[in-house]
Amino acid sequence: MLLHDYFGHGNFAVRMSRFGVRGRVFAETLAWKKGVMSANATLAGWLASPEHRSILLDPTLHRIGVATPVGPFGGFATATVVTADFAG
User: Fold this and answer.
1) Of the candidates 67, 65, 68, 57, which has an alpha carbon nearest to the alpha carbon of residue 85?
2) CA distances from 16 to 11, 29, 46 (A)
3) Which burial class, exposed, middle or buried, applies to 19 when counting CB atoms under 10 A from its CB (0-12, 13-18, 19+)?
4) Whole-prediction pTM value?
5) pLDDT tens track, the chain, 88 positions
6) Do residues 81 and 32 lie in contact, with contact meaning Cβ atoms separated by under 8 Å?
7) What is the DSSP letter of 3?
């Protein structure tokens, strides 16, 4: 997302397949902020959102992959984009 300056899930199923992720259920949470975003701020934002909270607390999602690139994004010189992909 950072490289192509877009924010969205895109073709999530294809991405998971390309990385060899297998499972019955998958989910993804995204966040971004101008500047550097802390893990605490990201988690607090997700937990405040009912949709994201349900993903984070879903007991069927046993595996997680997280990426937090920082760089130019959304017209800002520095931004943090956070992606958390889950599988179960």
Assistant:
1) 65
2) 9, 14, 21
3) exposed
4) 0.88
5) 998 999 999 888 888 999 899 899 999 999 999 999 999 999 999 999 999 999 999 999 999 999 999 999 999 999 999 999 999 9
6) yes
7) T
